[in-house]
Specification:
Blueprint (H helix, E strand, L loop, with lengths): L2 H15 L6 H25 L7 E9 L4 E7 L1 H19 L8 H20 L3 H22 L4 H30 L6 H5 L5 H16 L10 H8 L2 H26 L1 H27 L4 H20 L4 H33 L4 H4 L4 H4 L1 H14 L6 H16 L1 H26 L19 H19 L2 H10 L6 H5 L4
Antiparallel strand pairs: 1-2
Helix pairs in contact: 1-2, 1-4, 2-3, 2-4, 3-4, 3-10, 3-13, 3-19, 3-20, 4-5, 4-10, 5-6, 5-10, 6-8, 6-9, 8-10, 8-11, 9-10, 9-12, 10-12, 10-13, 11-12, 11-18, 12-13, 12-17, 12-18, 13-16, 13-17, 13-19, 13-20, 16-18, 16-19, 17-18, 17-19
Length: 494
Amino acid sequence: MLAWTIYSSFIGVFALTLVRANNPRAARITALLTALVGLAAAVGGFVQHKADSGIVTVTKLPWIKSLGIDYYLAADGISVTLVLLTGIAAVVGILFSWNIENRAKEFFAFYLSLIGGVYGVFLSFDLFLLFVFYELAIIPKYFLIAIWGSTNKEYGAMKLALYSFIGSAMVLIGLVAAYVVAGARTTDLLALASFPFPESFQYWAFPLVFIGFAILAGLWPFHTWAPAGHVAAPTAASMLLAGVVMKLGAYGALRVAMTLFPLGLKEWQVEIGFLAVVGIVYGAMVALVQKDFKFVIGYSSVSHMGFVLLGLVTLNTVGLSGAVLQMFSHGIIAGLLFAVVGRMVYDRTHTRELGKLQEMDLGRALPFASVTFIIASVASMGLPGFSGFVAELQVLIGAWHAFPAFALFAGLGIVIGVAYTLRALQKSFFSDIEVKSVKHARPFEPISTPERIGGAVLIASTLVVGLYPRLLLDLIVPSFNSPLFDALRKGGGL
């Protein structure tokens, strides 16, 4: 069933080629139906997967026999969790793109291509296949931003593409080197994870592959593409960029770099942890002084992704499972924040400057957007009852066991996060500047039904996981007992 998340996405792309160019409504409906099929397959796979299932093969067929490359799709609790996140983000992103009229057919074709690539990465257990899907997920982002974006869209799109392909080149060099050194004529992830790569090789191969992936996860100081890309992207693309594309980088770092090169990980553990903590604090401090509403959310994503990377290098089950849970949580919450800022506010006010927004009395003019952003802000600050609280708490506990000083600085990032979130909320929706009564305020287009449904789905997702985190943790935690992490356990981790 999980394989149909990939297949349905690309079938949807083909179906869109049959839609008339002057019929944007048909394009939207086709994209939505495709995304719903993908979500149904993701939910079906999630329900079917049991905590003790381990790694379940979805399909495995010979692809390039001479090189030992297979079309190998499989899933464990980590994969299933992130596939579910992708399904939710895909459907909601289309709901918040219901206003797309300009070249809608092409927009949704690129959109579904990206989604299909993301599904493929999360389900690939062949390194070459994973890399192919990884590239498929990156390329459509350039066109979504460069064609349908806004502020400095060409610059934002090109910067994202260049950083992404530099990271991809680093990953490819590391994977080819691992393939040659192993001499096993296979690109099977499980087979290579059990191969004893020399420590001298792992010392340079690990940072090459880890950082190559982590660039896409917003690792400081390679993060600068993220805020520029977020701001330039159209709403749905911003939601996907923060919601799932940045997770590809963190997932690759965990699934590939950490499992293939555990000895290299031990050598570079502190350095990577330091960069993650700097990203947490730096991203929060820069968000605190931004005047552009979308830049606030963009830099907050860098800060929150720092928690993911910090959790990964704690090398204990609490921190690692917290990192995966944070991937899901941040994907939902960041998507909700960008939906409010990009679609509900910017598309109606045509400005993202906090100084101008505080003169518009948005709290009364757009009450649904106001309430939605309050909920998203509370979730982003990590208050109990929302998914972010459980995820960040686990990362902090794991970090305290691994390196207490880093945990303290990460806590400082949370405090600053409260400050920039409250500042943005107050300036945008609850300004103390005296305004006229609401009947004399500037009229705005009402919040549409698709937007209300999309917002409700994201709010429900973070609430359900926040109130009952075992729903995901019961699948995530056992995944670290699989053979894929045997070498990491023997190397002193977990």
